[in-house]
Design brief:
Blueprint lengths: L2 E5 L3 H12 L3 E5 L4 H6 L5 E4 L1 H9 L11 E9 L5 E15 H11 L1
Parallel strand pairs: 1-2
Antiparallel strand pairs: 3-5, 4-5
Length: about 110
């Protein structure tokens, strides 16, 4: 049986570890912080979860935020400078915003 070690419990490492387990492959995630320590840290950013990401999360059983996260139905971007640009568009299906501390702590617990 294959065994895989994953260094780091960021979004990629957590989703990879959970996906490997659903495929019957033994995986270990090496991280320096527990879920409780992740939650207690300062807010560094938020995660915007688009349609394909939400579908992948559902397939590996970590769609905890679908009921809790606010919908983001439209996105507008403006870049200032000598040649400023701006654009906006609708997001279908809606995206969600999630606090990064929660986004990493819950899958780590699930793992």
């Amino acid at each position: 049986m294959s065994r895989i070690g994953i260094v780091g419990a960021g979004i990629g490492g957590l989703q990879l570890g959970l996906l490997l387990r659903t495929c019957g492959i033994s995986a270990t995630i090496y991280t320096e912080r527990t879920p409780e320590q992740v939650r207690a840290g300062r807010l560094r950013n938020v995660v915007v979860r688009n349609g394909p990401t939400r579908a992948r999360e559902r397939s590996i059983g970590i769609d905890d935020w679908d009921a809790e996260a606010p919908d983001l139905g439209r996105l507008s971007v403006t870049v200032s400078g000598p040649r400023p640009i701006a654009f906006s568009g609708a997001l279908e299906p809606p995206s969600h915003l999630v606090d990064m501390r929660l986004y990493c702590a819950r899958p780590l617990e699930a793992f």
